Amino acid sequence: MKKSVALALAILLVLISGCVNNPDFDKLNEQGWLNPQSPVIEPSQPPANTLPDAANPPAVDAYSGPVKFGDVVHADYNLFLEDGVREDSSEGRSPLVFRVGDGGLIKGFENGVLGMKTGESKTVQVSPEDGYGTVDPNKIQSLPPEVFSDIESLRVGDVVTSQQVGQGTIIEIGRGTDGNVSYVRVDFNHRLAGKTLRFEITVVKIESGA
Q: Is the pTM of this model over 0.70?
């Protein structure tokens, strides 16, 4: 499991005032990601699953389908990346429950169940545009070591969380000629941004929204 790292941002007010000259950091602050009103980035918790368990929608009459917008769908799924690695699954958990069209899940998943019937299984390929988006280079930032509370404990792959930006993954730790950390590069894109996804979906139950 990737280690969660707490970042102390109390030092950011000093950095913003000009004590550290870091264009990437300044850009991050200008975009409102680092908010002095919320000075602490909380320790991150690795997500238990990629697709969030939706809030329980109001109960409606069950029917066999086909699924249409407004229906509440109970579905099992497996998520695979292009290399065939299974990234996520509802196996061992209750089916995912969501209302089609509410936008609680990625567009490609919701659109993928349209027209399906109870008991039907289907493989759906989702492009980055209909999934977790393309990679935004502006969300890959080099931060000064002073913003981290325990710089020597950092490792590439560690996950950090900002209240303004969300989760980010450390992708590089730069060191100067003296061996000390000079910057930490963090990717604040979603971990599945830019990836084509393949879902194996089975509709377990449909509740008509009509």
A: no
